Amino acid sequence: MLEPDTRLIVALDVSPDRAVEIAETLDGYVDGFKVGYEVVLAEGAAGIERVAEVLEESFLLVDLKTADIPEISRSIVERVSEAGANAAIVHGFVGPDVVEECAEVLPVFVVATMSHPGAREFYDRACRDIVKACDDIDGVVGYVAPATRPERVREVRKITDKLIASPGVGAQGAAPGDAVRAGADFEIVGRAITEAHDPVEAAKDLTRAMRTSRPAER
Ligand code: O7M
């Protein structure tokens, strides 16, 4: 289910109606979709359900970047699971007890560090330790590491054989394929697709660019 093929995950940071429309149109053309606060704050778990219902081939990640104590984090992931998510995203800096609790409920991608410049201040320093601490946890299927700083993707890849999903392509400045070449399995792309005149063409262009990228040796 979470196997890389086109290597593209589309971030649907748009209204629930638009998220459903894009998901229906691109289902099967891309490996997966990611929904988060834009959809959930508009319609709650029902927004996740609406996107999940139209997907027949692509997977659905729910990105609430969960970062609470283990019990609360688990109940958030339970709700996300009931709504139809195939995997959840949990922050790594909260520690392996939180990650373990969530990963008992649903496959989890752990945020190892982030794509924005401020992540250099604190998050980057914890990146290696987060991956080392989470890698033996059953149910951790992968990590989120930034396409904007491929050296961080390489750092994560050196420690783990699990999946890596990398945001930051397009609007945040990374070129398609940069993260895959550094060892990522997926690139997460939002605005470059959702704000494109023709999201289908934009997604196809991106998948073509990624297909021609040679994945790094494992
Ligand atoms: O392509 P964009 O910049 O429009 O969108 C990027 C998406 O990736 C958006 O949904 C962000 O929430 C997400 N993201 C980052 O941009 N940076 C990160 O470090 C982590 C994420 C993410 O997906 O975390 C799971």
TrEMBL record:
Its EC number is 4.1.1.23. This is Orotidine 5'-phosphate decarboxylase. One of its GO terms (cellular component) is cytosol. Substrate binds at residues 13, 34, 115, 190-191. Keywords: Decarboxylase, Lyase, Pyrimidine biosynthesis. GO terms for molecular function: orotidine-5'-phosphate decarboxylase activity. Signal peptide: none annotated. Residues 7-206 form the Orotidine 5'-phosphate decarboxylase domain.
